[in-house]
Amino acid sequence: MNRSDSTFTPESVTEALRREGLRITRNRRGILQALFESVRPMSLQEIQSAASVHEGSRPDYATVFRMIMLMEKLHLVHKVNLQRSCSYYEISDPRKHYDHLVCRSCGNVVLIDTPCPIGDAEKKIALQHGFRDLSHSLEFFGVCATCP
Amino acid sequence: MNRSDSTFTPESVTEALRREGLRITRNRRGILQALFESVRPMSLQEIQSAASVHEGSRPDYATVFRMIMLMEKLHLVHKVNLQRSCSYYEISDPRKHYDHLVCRSCGNVVLIDTPCPIGDAEKKIALQHGFRDLSHSLEFFGVCATCP
DNA sequence: ATACATGCAAACATTTTGCTTTGGC
DNA sequence: GCCAAAGCAAAATGTTTGCATGTAT
Fold first, then answer.
1. Residue B95: burial class (beta carbons within 10 Å; 0-12, 13-18, 19+)
2. Which pLDDT tens digit goes with each residue over A93-148?
3. pLDDT digits 0-9 by tens, B43-83
4. Checking phi first, is residue A80 left (phi over 0); if not, alpha (psi -120 to 50) or beta?
5. Is A125's CB within 8 Å of B81's CB?
6. Cα A90 to the chain's mean position, in Å?
7. CA–CA separation, B131 and B129 (whole Å)
8. Which residues 98-127 on B are within 7 A of strand C at the CB atom?
9. Which nucleotide is nearest to B70 (CA to C1')?
10. In DSSP terms, which residues pair with B140 in a beta bridge?
11. Distances (CA, A) of A117 to A27, A77, A100, B96, B116
12. Subunit contact B134:A126, Cβ cutoff 8 A
């Protein structure tokens, strides 16, 4: 398995971690599985709970925190801005886009998987302002169909 | 002066506040002036400092906090996601768009005032997912021309 | 004169770190 | 066995609230 492999799975990420010299522990397996199974961004607490279900023992909050910080640095997860009081994280498949649609009323979060609506704009803006290595964070907020 | 007036100034906002039954104090004048003069989103601390320069006396942090919460509820300011550890706020001229370009290296923030790149996409997404009252939060992150 | 706004201080929530023990390699 | 990872607990940071006093109306 090499770095340009087109798979992105708990296994491939585990390999990536190993290549970084990191150890694969029960906690880390649980956290990875939690991230991969979730269909929406998760708070550290949610990751902690979900991880404990998978591996039977609940990792300490600090452990989750350090693991996620690590993965963020390695671009394996990214933070999502849900306009709430704590941070939410999501696994980062490099081949995917992660724009979100959030219901202001019930909080439900939908991942938008249609092609990224602003790829062109991004390039234009980079050029205009002399910025490079552009990425973006895009969240839509509205009221979903089932909310009054 | 009526609500559909096309001006958006410290004076017009002051009027809006008065109409809400709020009192115009030295602190509030300072905070308003700070918000209007800034070319980038400000933290509550920054607002506090800037306000104190303008009116000579430094409002308490809690006072700034309550004022900004109030203005947020009235849609006179909005929060901006700069991926930092505290919240940033910006005055909300209803006729303008507020998308941002942030340098990952030096933190410099540029307001993008070209026409909003995703008006159409927004409508499409609303339709597709059955959401209404859509708004969005869009920030670009990159490295600016003056950073290595 | 009457509320609303303020300052101060404390409570709260969340994130981050230090240090000892555990366990993957 | 060695060193990274985990657990525990405390510190640091940022946000929010309660209450007595000041002040715009």
1. exposed
2. 999 989 999 999 999 999 998 888 888 889 999 999 999 999 999 999 999 999 98
3. 999 999 999 999 999 999 999 999 999 999 999 999 999 99
4. beta
5. no
6. 2
7. 6
8. none
9. C5
10. A136, B101
11. 37, 21, 12, 20, 12
12. no
Distance CA B148, CA B141 (A): 15
- Domains in chain B, CATH or no CATH each: 1-94 (1.10.10.10), 97-148 (3.30.1490.190)
Structure tokens at A58: 């609940």
Q: pLDDT by residue (tens digit) across A26-35?
A: 999 999 999 9
Per the CB < 8 A criterion, the answer to whether B94 and B40 are in contact is no
pLDDT tens-digit readout, A66-100: 999 999 999 999 999 999 999 999 999 999 989 99
The phi-psi region of residue A24 (left if phi > 0; otherwise alpha if psi is between -120 and 50; otherwise beta) is: beta
- Residue B114 corresponds to which amino acid? T
SS3 B78: strand
**Which three-class secondary structure state does DSSP give residue B84?**
coil
Compute, in degrees rounded to 10, the torsion defined by CA atoms B84, B89, B93, B99: 0
Nearest of B30, B32, B27 to residue B15 by alpha carbon: B32
Whether any strand D atom is under 7 angstroms from the Cβ of B3: the reply reads no
What Rg, from alpha-carbon coordinates, does chain B have? 17
